[in-house]
C-alpha cells in the first residue's frame, strides 16, 4: 500500500502569489501531474495542513479543483494558515468523519485502509504555534486503545525542535503530553507532520517522526541563533509512504522536471561506462 503525503501547499486566490513570490497553485499542479504520471498509483493522499495561505473559501476551492484530477481519497487536517472552521466548511465530508459533529477540532480516523491513519488537528485559532489540548489527547488515547492495528498519527505541527529557531518558536506546545500518549501504544509506527516545509526526521517516543517537504517553498536551512525567517525555492517534493505490516518506509520524491531515467546496464546487462 502506498500513501502520498502532500503538505503546506499554501494555495492563494488567482492572481496572488504566496509572500509575493510563490505561485503555489502552479507548484501543486506540478505535484499532482507528477503523482498522476507515477506507475504506482497511491491508495490515498494525506495533506498535513496549510492547504491555504489565508484560510479563504476561494483558496480551499482552488485547492480542491487542483487536486481533483488525482481521483484519489484526500484526507486533510488544518495547519496554522488554515482553521478548523475553514477546513470543515471546505470539506463537508469531515462532519461524518468526526462523528457527525458540525464544529470543533478536525480529529478523525481513516479506518478503511490497511494502515490506520489518525488525523489530528493541532491548529490554534489565529496563532502560528500548535497545541493538541487535553481533549484531543484523551480522544487520541481512546482511538489507540480501540484497535491494535498498525497506525500512523498525522498532525501539522512537529512535536520536536528542529534547530531552525523561528520555526521552533511555533511548534507543538504540548509535545511532552503527546509523546506520553504515543509511548503507551506500540502499534503506532510513526508520526507525520508538516509546518517546516522540509524533510526532517527524528525519533519521538521511540518511533520515526518525520516532517514532510512542501510542494512549494522550503523554510531555509539556517541554524544560527539570529538567522532571519526566510525561505528558499528548493526543489519541491512529495512524500510517498510505502506500508507493509509492521513497517512504513518513507520516500522523499522531488517533483520533476529533471533529467532521466538513464539505465545502469546496457542491453547485454553490462554496467554502462
Ligand atoms: Fe506552511
From TrEMBL:
Domain Calcineurin-like phosphoesterase residue range list: 1-198
GO MF, one example: metal ion binding
Gene3D superfamilies for the chain: GpdQ, beta-strand dimerisation domain (3.30.750.180), GpdQ, catalytic alpha/beta sandwich domain (3.60.21.40)
Annotated family: Belongs to the cyclic nucleotide phosphodiesterase class-III family.
Superkingdom assignment: Bacteria
Name of the protein: 3',5'-cyclic adenosine monophosphate phosphodiesterase CpdA
UniProt KW keywords: Hydrolase, Iron, Metal-binding
Amino acid at each position: 500500500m502506498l500513501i502520498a503525503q502532500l503538505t503546506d501547499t499554501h494555495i492563494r486566490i488567482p492572481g496572488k502569489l504566496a509572500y509575493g513570490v510563490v505561485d503555489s497553485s502552479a507548484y501543486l499542479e506540478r505535484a499532482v501531474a507528477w503523482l498522476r504520471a507515477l506507475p504506482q498509483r497511491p491508495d490515498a493522499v494525506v495533506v498535513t495542513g496549510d492547504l491555504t495561505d489565508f484560510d479563504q473559501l476561494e483558496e480551499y476551492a482552488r485547492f480542491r479543483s487542483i487536486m481533483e484530477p488525482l481521483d484519489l481519497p484526500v484526507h486533510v487536517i488544518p495547519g496554522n494558515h488554515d482553521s478548523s472552521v475553514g477546513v470543515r466548511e471546505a470539506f463537508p465530508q469531515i462532519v461524518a468523519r468526526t462523528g457527525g459533529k458540525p464544529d470543533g477540532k478536525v480529529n478523525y480516523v481513516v479506518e478503511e485502509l490497511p494502515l490506520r491513519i489518525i488525523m489530528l488537528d493541532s491548529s490554534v485559532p489565529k496563532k502560528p504555534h500548535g497545541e493538541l489540548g487535553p481533549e484531543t489527547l484523551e480522544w487520541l488515547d481512546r482511538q489507540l486503545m480501540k484497535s491494535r492495528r498498525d497506525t500512523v498519527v498525522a498532525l501539522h505541527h512537529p512535536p520536536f525542535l528542529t534547530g531552525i529557531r523561528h520555526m521552533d518558536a511555533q511548534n507543538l506546545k504540548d509535545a511532552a503530553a503527546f509523546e506520553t500518549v504515543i509511548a503507551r501504544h506500540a502499534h503506532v509506527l510513526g508520526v507525520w507532520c508538516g509546518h517546516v516545509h522540509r524533510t526532517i526526521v527524528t525519533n519521538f517516543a521511540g518511533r520515526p517522526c518525520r516532517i514532510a517537504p512542501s510542494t512549494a517553498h522550503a523554510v531555509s536551512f539556517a541554524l544560527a541563533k539570529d538567522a532571519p525567517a526566510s525561505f528558499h525555492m528548493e526543489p519541491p517534493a512529495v512524500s510517498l509512504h510505502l506500508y507493509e505490516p509492521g513497517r512504513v518506509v518513507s520516500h522523499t520524491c522531488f517533483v520533476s522536471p529533471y533529467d532521466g531515467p538513464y539505465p545502469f546496464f546496457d542491453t547485454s546487462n553490462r554496467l554502462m561506462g
